[in-house]
Amino acid sequence: MIVALAVGLALGIQAFLIKPYQIPSESMEPTLDVGQRVLVNRFIYHFTDPGIGDIVVFHPPAGADGGGTECGKPNKNPEEPCPEPTAEESDQNFIKRIVAGPGDKLSVRNGHPVVNGVIKSDEPYIMPCTGGGACDLPKTITIPPDHYFMMGDNRGSSDDSRFWGPVPRDWIIGKAFATYWPPNRLGLL
């Protein structure tokens, strides 16, 4: 009886409160390494809005999960970030950092988000962009209501909202708040 109660409690906590995730790619380096494990608060966004700088686990738009760069806007200008996602969400989980929220005007300069005309260059946690089309997207887009623009900290090697658009709030699973594996990387995010 006690074992069944303990298992039930553990499953309930994981399903509704806190869930562990493993980092699958290098897109969040140097903040999070491949194989590192994080804990995600699944209930916080029931009480508060996601914030700029939050590291979140979410479902990307369909098409992004296969490494695709499918944007929901046909014939997107190649000098702008993707302004809207495909209508369908993937069943995969991604982890990225929120860099812009609903109503924000966004462009990208040298891998840094330019939000409402202000470049976010004080990002000591990122790996710089090393060139390429996604490092400079000077044409400004407006983030739709209830959507969030995600970018990986490894700006030159991240498949993110620049390619497949902002993510609807209801596709966000939760906020990553701590790392628990490996032991030498234990800590709060």
Can you give a write-up of this model?
By secondary structure, this protein is mainly β. The protein has a single domain, classed as Umud Fragment, subunit A. It is 10% helix and 30% strand. The protein has two helices and twelve strands. The protein has helices spanning 2-16, 161-164, and strands at residues 18-22, 37-41, 55-58, 94-100, 105-109, 112-115, 118-119, 137-142, 147-151, 167-168, 172-181, 187-188. Strands 1, 2, 3, 4, 9, 10, 11 and 12 form an eight-stranded antiparallel beta sheet that branches. Strands 7-6-5-8 form a four-stranded antiparallel beta sheet, with no helix packed on it. A hairpin with a 2-residue loop joins strand 6 (112-115) and strand 7 (118-119). The chain starts with a helix and ends with a strand. The mean pLDDT is 89.
List keywords for this structure.
189 residues, mainly beta, Umud Fragment, subunit A, 8-stranded antiparallel sheet, 4-stranded antiparallel sheet
End-to-end Cα distance, whole Å, is 37 Å
Work out the number of β strands: 12
CATH fold label: Umud Fragment, subunit A
Report the order of strands and helices: HEEEEEEEEEHEEE
